[in-house]
Amino acid sequence: MIDVSLSMEIRRIYLPAIGLAILTGWLAWRGWNALDGYGPLRSIRAGQTQLAGPVVLGFVLVVVLLEQIWPAQRRPVLSRGHLLDLTYLFVHALLVVPVVVLIGTGFSSTLAHAAPWLVLPQTSVIPRWGFIVLALVAIDFVDWFAHLINHKVNSLWRLHALHHSQEELSVLTTFRTHPLVHVTFVLSAVPILALASNATTPAILLTAYACLGALPHANLRWSYGRLDKVLVSPVFHRAHHRPVGRLDINLGTVFSIWDVMSRRAVFPERGTTPAPTGLSGRPIPVEQQAERPHLARVFIAQWAEPFTTSR
């Protein structure tokens, strides 16, 4: 039996991960104080409804059912990968979303104070819906850029690698993330802040964006044909999760145009066998490597792994 606990080799604390944890805590504290007048708990509940509420959970359930009808790779509903990613979904809804809300608010308030010139003046030249569309497109670009950074900076990759460790990719893998990785995605607050004087993006559109961002992880053979050059399909994104070759490809969340323009788009040939997913060599403990799943132990080891490194 392969032990999924941390190796017995001598290990030391990985300081960059500690630094990111401190930064996350500081931004969360800033966010809590910024929301003090409105109510931090009320804002957190609103964020949970928006990012992990009935609409998002219902969407995920529908996609899970579709994965059983048209799977890219057939596997049991209660496979180890699905069960652990389901755990990540619950943790995401209960713990990670509140962190995302607080650090996003903390970053926005800090940025607004340090660089008030970022907020564009109010104008009637562009209609409100135009600013909303612009905000969503800009958010997607910033998410793409943050995703790229997560692949290029080693200290960030060690956090993001957890997401890539899943060998049974499904829509549930969307939520398989280390909580500290979200500190890089607070950059999406920049376009929201810049356009705040002209439009506020409706919560329902952000919920729809969360659903569209989850769909590419689905275990489906879906391709959008020529539209793959504009939108990220499950087939397009699956290439990003393959265990070998370049991983800094097909980075888009909803729109693939950023990959196309940066020449990072790889379009799998139609009719080819779906590629396996995961990380070559299993550098991160995974639920598939032991005779028994030990899901709780694997979950703890996966969250702890970025904080230590071999001597």
Write the layout of secondary structure elements.
Elements: E1 11-13, H1 15-34, H2 40-52, H3 54-69, H4 80-114, H5 128-152, H6 154-164, H7 189-194, H8 203-214, H9 234-238, H10 257-261, H11 295-304, E2 308-310
Antiparallel strand pairs: 1-2
Helix pairs in contact: 1-4, 2-3, 2-4, 3-8, 5-6
Short synopsis of the structure:
This protein is mostly helical. It contains eleven helices and two strands.
Give a written overview of the molecule.
With 311 residues, the chain is mostly helical. Helix content is 51%, strand content 2%. It is built from 11 helices and 2 strands, in the order βαααααααααααβ. It has a two-stranded antiparallel ribbon with strand order 1-2. It is globular and about 55 Å long.
Please name the defining characteristics of this protein.
311 residues; mainly alpha; two-stranded antiparallel sheet; 11 helices
